[in-house]
Amino acid sequence: MREHAFDRRGWLRATIGVIATAIASVLGLVVGGAVVSPGLAGRREAWRPAGRLSDIAPGVPTPITIRVTRQDGYYEAVDQQVVFLVKSQSGGVRALSSTCTHLGCHVSYDADKKVIKCPCHGGTFSPDGRNIAGPPPRPLAELSARVEAGRVFVQL
Predict the structure, then answer these.
(1) What is the mean pLDDT of the chain?
(2) What is the pTM of this model?
(3) Distance, CA of 49 to CA of 151 (rounded, Å)
(4) CATH code for 47-155?
């Protein structure tokens, strides 16, 4: 019976196989981590100050610009998001998105007609965000809002 000798060629073949497997494993971890980690990280939502409750008239959508900072690599990007705060007669507050549900245009409040209007395709919303005319398929999105010590906070 002949024994299989582990010669130089066999040793070299095994070593190259181990190195190739190690490289493939590291590349798989790096690429897999880059693809999977953003989905696992989730979006961090925070309560942002939106103004004083006393500055908001009851039943009138008041546009408030909220400053939102986000980390983009080494760079800190600053975005501004406009929301409408609507105070009820009882003192509660609702926060409405300023983005039209039709095609994403930014809406504005028309104080003369007492409606929120979209300039892009004529969508019209009531002061509480319900769609009343035009192509928007849904009411304006409502954001979480709370009042603490006379200040309004919106969750973005």
Answers:
(1) 86
(2) 0.67
(3) 7
(4) 2.102.10.10
